[in-house]
Amino acid sequence: MSPRKKDLLSAVAAAAESSADTAKTSAHQLHEKTRLERIPPAVRFALAVFSSLVLSSTLFTLTTGITLGDLGRVSKHLETWWEVGGLMAWKAVEVGLAWVLGYDARDVLTLTLLTHLPTYTLLSTFYTVRPTTTITSYLITLISTTLPFYLLRPSSSLSSPGPKNRSILQDRPTTIYTTVAATAIFAVALYTSYATPWLPRLLVVHFANLPDISAVHAGPAGLPGLFLGLLPAGAAVRDFLFVSSAGVDDEVTSEEKKKKKKQNGGEGESEGEGESKGEGEGEGEGEGKSFLCALYQKTWGSLTRKTQVLVSRTVVLAGLLLGNTVVQVAGTVNGVDVTGAAAWGSVWAAAAVVTGALFGWVEAVDGV
């Protein structure tokens, strides 16, 4: 058989295998969606928030023999009901926000891993908390947040890329390059913050009785270890930002075309009504709607769908990195104030924004 025929047969076989995988995934998602649709959305949302809180409390109670010694040494003693209620409310906000944004279990797993990483990195690096305690607490946080979504929320379409994008996301060199790039950005951000006088001074002033700050003075020798320790975070950032956005098909469907045409027709109708009414109230409303629609079309509406997904997820990730770090560190770690926690979280949030910009540059290349 000639090499040309072999290549043709290989291409046909690859296409058939991709189509079979897509059909199998679609059938599984349809079955899962049908099963979960029997439960009203409001009930599923309430169950997700409640089960996450109960599961977290139960697992931390069962593992007190592992975590109590280390965490009790560095934790604040919460004596008022509003302090405990505030932390529980923030947990509910995290779960509720992920639910409202339509994230599935895979999205929640990577997002939770990233947003809680600054807290556990701080505990293990500067408070000499044992790895067993850190890993146990981390796993409890991941399980209690992700499991309710796995049971109550069907897989999102963003988790299964279209046929056009599947080859890009399954390309091994691209996977390695994007993961290494994301890891390097976070590692360099932390290393730079350690090397400048800004963060070390904040650690001394706003983190009372910090047991160990040797990581700040490690210099270039600490960069390889920092990079290797952040590799899981780099893979999670790639999955949450790059995979979800690059897997979106930018082709406009017929349904979306009809919707856009209807919106344009509605705008024309509003303008006509405004002219017939003269200088009345209807004309002012029509002009206001036209201005808002034009502003939307020139800003957010001018972006492709994959860019919209990337921008929105980058904003969510950076915001939760900062917000969760402030709540968890300032609210639970003894001797830390809001200023110090915000400074620590801002380093991670800035790294997330830079990583999102890098992925946007990569996705702007033709064929991605």
UniProtKB/TrEMBL annotation:
Residues 253-286 are annotated as: Disordered. It comes from the Eukaryota. The chain crosses the membrane at residues 44-68, 108-129, 135-153, 174-194, 214-237, 310-330, 342-362. Keywords: Membrane, Transmembrane, Transmembrane helix. The keyword Membrane applies. This is Uncharacterized protein. The lineage of its organism: Eukaryota, Fungi, Dikarya, Ascomycota, Pezizomycotina.
